[in-house]
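Hi everyone,

Forwarding the result from last night's run.
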Amino acid sequence: MFYTYCLESEKFDELYFGYTNDLKRRLKEHNQGLNFSTKRYMPWKLIYYEACINQKDAKRREGYLKTTQGQRMMKARLKEYLYEKRKI
């Protein structure tokens, strides 16, 4: 399986989208600072993921989620979670 995922920085108001075939390992790598583009926003928590059988499908979905339209769609998908988080 291949996973497209959304991480949320626990310190900053940042979301990150990626894809992998090993979700637990990848989250650990992000939180160990092994990814240059996410290192400065650590720590991260997983807030959403989707599973695909085909790697190309997961990669294409990641590309879409990194677009403005894809980010808008994801924020609408996670509307209640993001709203509750801001109330605290």
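DSSP finds four helices and three strands in the chain.

Cheers,
N.
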